[in-house]
Design goal:
The termini are far apart. 52% of the residues lie in helices and 0% in strands. The protein contains 5 helices and no strands. The chain is mainly alpha-helical and 115 residues long. The longest helix is centred in the middle third of the chain and has 14 residues.
């Protein structure tokens, strides 16, 4: 397919939304699909030599240098209180009550530690 034809198709589909029924059909069809041995070999060959996708994977303890860099970056970012994720937000009375109830009877993490 030519690049021009692909661009035309892409433009025609811009802004369109799939119905929930269509999304469900696509999800059901792809959930049942299994890759053949040949397909798995092809995928494996294509991924050889590339770094693994590690988003969200812990990689062990960070070095002191890295932690210091992260600290400086966070302090710089949060120097303006408007950059704080909770800036301008308030907990509802219901949320406050739930939070209070969930913490009742808990022993504080620093109870018994000497300063």
């Amino acid at each position: 397919m030519s690049a021009e034809a692909r661009a035309k198709i892409s433009a025609a589909h811009k802004g369109k939304r799939m119905s929930e029924e269509t999304k469900a059909k696509i999800a059901a069809a792809s959930a049942l699909r299994k890759h053949s041995a040949e397909e798995r070999a092809k995928i494996s060959a294509a991924l050889k030599g590339k770094p693994r996708r590690t988003r969200g994977v812990k990689r062990g303890p960070l070095s002191a240098e890295t932690r210091a860099k992260m600290s400086v970056a966070a302090k710089k970012r949060l120097a303006d209180p408007r950059n704080h994720p909770m800036y301008g937000k308030h907990f509802s009375e219901e949320s406050k009550a739930k939070n209070s109830a969930s913490h009742k009877g808990r022993v504080p993490w620093n109870k018994g530690l000497k300063a």
